[in-house]
């Protein structure tokens, strides 16, 4: 017997909601997925900041680690809203469509209760109540799911709940979206024209916002909250998805006409159904396309950020591992100790020195020519090693400073020099002899030879000086021999002659030279292995040849010079200077952090220094090629100094958590799309039950109807997948490199390009395709089953 009691407001709301429990449950599930995704993403990013710098990089002080963690955390905070916003947009779109489906399913109910006096205020109250219940249920289920995920992956469950303000805000926004969309859906028949105008306005605004983001993003930097960085991915991906939706609508209408010309029911009937129901399919297409676009974007961001960070770090390091020895020099013993480390394949000295060129501050980088191929990194192709190697050897530009060191022989253990010194004064000259040696790695060292002056009958003195070779890597080579006034108090001019030079344990060397030490000087170069380009002993030579160098684009543009031009540079903080000729221009040089830099082979640079003076600028770094994991042992071997590698630093490592964060958000987007797609398809199937009987009456069997529905849905989802991939690729090409540069500290301007990480992308798309395929198969089976019993109603006849 029917219940004739009047319904109270509470009972009415319960009855009203219970009739559409399935769609409301889908809405709650959507909110739950969004809340869980936001909670897990924020927990992951917070954890990245917490564990950063633990253990600290070898040789790095705790306060330096803390500074880098703070810098990385600030940059990460500037990009975090983009992830939350992307999840909110997907969830909001899905929730809004589910609300419209609820409103469409209640069309007759709404008309009835309105006719019986259901006021506008009561309608708003009812819709808001349902939105609140959906939001509350989503928060509870989503928080529980986030805690469970955290426990499964080994985190503390409480860490997933630490971001509860964001979770509550997400749920509240989705509840409001649901209530507003539900209310607008109930009023759709009286506001269709206004709704279309509003939708068109939203599309135009999103497209304009996307153009603004693409324009302004290159100027953004993640030093704090930047609205452009925060909204860039969501706006550009949404704009791409809207364009994909427009293409889908146009293609569906265009295909329906030729498809209808086929004599069979297929493909005309499915094509016409899609063309007629574009407003219903639009949200499913938008969600799937946006999800695929996000997956492509996540793949691009992950691969591009890794490449840009690694390449930038590699350019700055110059090699796989780099140790700055400043303020001390890097001697052959340091290089030998580095080469002996397990995991190090080769080691070499390097000079990274500040210089001045006119009013510009620049950097000078030098490594031995023999170390360019085995030690210097290519930095992902950013460094032109062929141009660097062309600076020395047979390909060296003519008329430039060239080194031709003399080998001491395999068995050499020391160096002995005999020289005759004649002074114009009355005191016996007592010069000190020194030699500049290069070991097998090209590491230079100044070897002071011990000896005494023996007087000769003609008033001159014979100096016999000898010293053992220092620690280093044999075989050794002799680059220069010089003399110092020594312990003499006389300032008289001194005439010096090299009589014999012997490599102890190997044999005599063919070296004969003489030079004059003027009274105004304390040192002189007696012999220099520069192939006779200059005459040693005549003091600074302004006519000495320049050293060939590769300069950066930035330096070339700043100075307004090109290949073949000669320029002067000064060593910062000293009165020394040198000349360089531009051999070639490259984007970057290894080891330079400044865009204004030049590179020269170390042997040629040493010769150029000795042609203009009597001392050298010693290398101040050790570069090594090998496994970056050898950094701890290398640091310990070189006095616990910090080791720079091509791997991301602490700050860049913190920001690198964004890449997994995007994949977590993409996983949530896949779940959101599948939930929404299932609800949309199921609602559409219920609304189209009447046509099954008509098709059956026309002779189309149950199996054929199931196949047609599968073809219809498969075409829709397939087109959405393809268009979403294209939209994601375009969005990635437009903003990913600039976004990485904006949020990651230390990215060099030349680092760029777009790349994709295929493995996770294929996995994500496969999961989405499998879920959509299951939905299509389920609907096809349901249609086939329903078509077996469906009959044509009287109203259809």
From TrEMBL:
The chain crosses the membrane at residues 21-46, 82-103, 124-152, 164-182, 194-215, 235-257, 278-301, 662-687, 713-736, 761-781. Its main location: membrane. It is found in: Cell membrane. The keyword Hydrolase does not apply. It comes from the Bacteria. Coiled coil: none annotated. The keyword Kinase does not apply. Keywords: Cell membrane, Membrane, Transmembrane, Transmembrane helix. Pfam families: FtsX (PF02687). Residues 83-179 form the ABC3 transporter permease C-terminal domain. It is a multi-pass membrane protein. This is ABC3 transporter permease C-terminal domain-containing protein. The lineage of its organism: Bacteria, Bacillati, Actinomycetota, Actinomycetes, Micrococcales.
């Amino acid at each position: 017997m029917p219940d004739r009691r009047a319904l109270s407001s509470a009972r009415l709301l319960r009855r009203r909601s219970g009739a559409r429990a399935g769609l409301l449950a889908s809405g709650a599930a959507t909110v739950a997925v969004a809340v869980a995704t936001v909670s897990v993403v924020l927990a992951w990013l917070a954890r990245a900041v917490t564990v950063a710098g633990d253990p600290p990089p070898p040789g790095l002080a705790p306060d330096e680690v803390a500074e880098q963690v703070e810098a990385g955390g600030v940059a990460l905070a500037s990009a975090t809203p983009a992830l939350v916003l992307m999840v909110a947009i997907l969830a909001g779109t899905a929730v809004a469509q589910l609300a419209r489906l609820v409103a469409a399913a209640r069309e007759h109910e709404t008309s009835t209760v309105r006719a019986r006096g259901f006021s506008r205020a009561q309608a708003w109250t009812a819709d808001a109540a349902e939105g609140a219940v959906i939001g509350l249920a989503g928060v509870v289920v989503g928080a529980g799911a986030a805690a469970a995920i955290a426990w499964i992956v080994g985190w503390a469950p409480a860490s997933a709940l630490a971001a509860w303000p964001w979770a509550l805000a997400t749920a509240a926004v989705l509840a409001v979206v649901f209530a507003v969309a539900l209310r607008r859906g109930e009023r759709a028949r009286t506001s269709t024209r206004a709704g279309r105008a509003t939708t068109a306005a939203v599309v135009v605004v999103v497209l304009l916002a996307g153009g603004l983001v693409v324009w302004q993003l290159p100027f953004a930097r993640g030093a704090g909250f930047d609205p452009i960085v925060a909204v860039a991915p969501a706006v550009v991906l949404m704009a791409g998805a809207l364009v994909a939706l427009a293409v889908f609508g146009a293609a569906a209408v265009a295909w329906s006409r030729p498809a209808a010309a086929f004599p069979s029911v297929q493909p005309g009937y499915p094509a016409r159904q899609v063309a007629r129901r574009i407003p219903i399919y639009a949200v499913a297409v938008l969600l799937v396309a946006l999800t695929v676009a996000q997956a492509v974007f996540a793949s691009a961001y992950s691969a591009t950020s890794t490449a840009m960070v690694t390449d930038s770090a590699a350019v700055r390091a110059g090699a796989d591992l780099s140790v700055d020895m400043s303020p001390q020099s890097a001697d052959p013993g340091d290089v030998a100790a580095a080469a002996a480390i397990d995991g190090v394949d080769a080691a070499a000295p390097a000079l990274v020195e500040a210089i001045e060129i006119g009013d510009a501050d620049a950097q000078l980088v030098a490594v031995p020519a023999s170390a360019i191929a085995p030690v210097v990194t290519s930095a992902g192709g950013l460094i032109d090693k062929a141009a660097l190697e062309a600076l020395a050897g047979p390909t060296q530009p003519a008329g430039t400073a060239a080194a031709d060191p003399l080998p001491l022989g395999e068995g050499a253990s020391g160096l002995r020099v005999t020289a005759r010194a004649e002074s114009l004064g009355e005191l016996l000259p007592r010069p000190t002899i020194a030699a500049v040696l290069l070991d097998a790695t090209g590491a230079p060292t100044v070897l002071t030879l011990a000896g005494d002056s023996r007087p000769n009958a003609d008033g001159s003195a014979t100096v016999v000086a000898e010293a053992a070779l220092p620690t280093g890597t044999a075989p050794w080579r002799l680059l220069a021999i010089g003399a110092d006034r020594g312990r003499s108090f006389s300032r008289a001019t001194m005439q010096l002659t090299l009589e014999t030079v012997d490599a102890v344990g190997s044999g005599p060397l063919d070296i004969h030279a003489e030079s004059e030490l003027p009274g105004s000087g304390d040192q002189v170069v007696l012999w220099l292995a520069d192939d006779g380009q200059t005459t040693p002993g005549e003091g600074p030579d302004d006519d000495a040849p320049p050293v060939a160098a590769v300069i950066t684009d930035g330096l070339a543009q700043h100075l307004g010079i090109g290949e073949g031009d000669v320029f002067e540079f000064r060593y910062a903080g000293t009165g020394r200077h040198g000349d360089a000729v531009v051999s070639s221009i490259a984007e970057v040089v290894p080891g330079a952090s400044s865009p204004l830099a030049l590179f020269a082979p170390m042997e040629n640079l040493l010769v150029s220094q000795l042609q203009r003076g009597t001392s050298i600028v010693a290398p101040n770094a050790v570069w090594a090629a090998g496994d970056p994991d050898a950094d701890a042992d290398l640091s310990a071997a070189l006095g616990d100094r910090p080791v720079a590698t091509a791997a991301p630093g602490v700050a860049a490592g913190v920001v690198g958590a964004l890449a997994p964060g995007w994949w977590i958000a993409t996983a949530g987007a896949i779940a959101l799309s599948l939930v929404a797609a299932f609800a949309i398809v199921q609602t559409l199937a219920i609304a189209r039950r009447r046509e099954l009987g008509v098709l059956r009456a026309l002779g189309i069997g149950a199996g054929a109807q199931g196949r047609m529905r599968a073809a219809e849905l498969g075409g829709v989802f397939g087109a959405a997948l393809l268009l979403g991939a294209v939209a994601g690729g375009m969005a990635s090409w437009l903003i990913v490199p600039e976004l990485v540069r904006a949020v990651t500290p230390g990215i060099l301007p030349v680092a760029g390009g777009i790349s994709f990480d295929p493995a996770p992308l294929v996995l994500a798309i496969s999961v989405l395709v499998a879920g959509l395929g299951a939905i299509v198969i389920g609907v096809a089976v349901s249609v086939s089953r329903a078509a077996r019993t469906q009959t044509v109603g009287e109203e259809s006849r």
